[in-house]
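Researcher: Next sequence.
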Amino acid sequence: MRTIAYVDGFNLYFGALRRTPHRWLNLQRLVELHLKPHHQIVGIKYFTAKLNPRPNDPDAPARQATYLRALATLPNLEITLGHFLTKNVRMLLANPAPGQSPTVEVVKTEEKGSDVNLAVQLLHDAHLNRFDCAVIVSGDSDLLMPVKIIRNELHKVVGVLNPQVHPCTVLKANATFYKHLRPNFVAAAQFPQTLTDAHGTFTRPPTW
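Model: Next structure:
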């Protein structure tokens, strides 16, 4: 069965990788471990946005660039980049003190584009008959509509590997199959410490 995996990078990171030592993740191996042998993975499509340096973590962009370089060693992997939008907004305080302003100005950073890019690419590939099975690595309920279209109208298999702790009930109800990412499979799907590409040898960032 021709299978393409569609990975929402930030949904995966915040759901299953943040504050773990398992961020040096081989996405193809991760998907293979969760699927049965009759799946032939013909593509991995990874959706993310480039990080900006922050005062408390100026090296984050460099670590991410090294990880994207590691992913690029996978032969069937494509990376699609969204962007970050940062702006100052006023938000309500949950419990303002007496006499205190009920709002506070905060810096709000949002990752824009990955979920839309994933949904569009998923539907585009389905209509071009590029897969028999799509596997979505995300727990985002916003992907419900493309899941329903691909399964019910295009009659293809759609699986969900949810990296979030909490289930996504609408995806579970409408996907052909639904699983939570297994932490032992995440731990087993790590790249080697050292990798080589056309530009030379590189290693996992020490604080990754």
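Model: The chain is about 30% helix and 30% strand. The beta strands are 2-8, 40-48, 77-81, 83-92, 103-112, 133-137, 157-162, 177-180, 194-197, 200-203.
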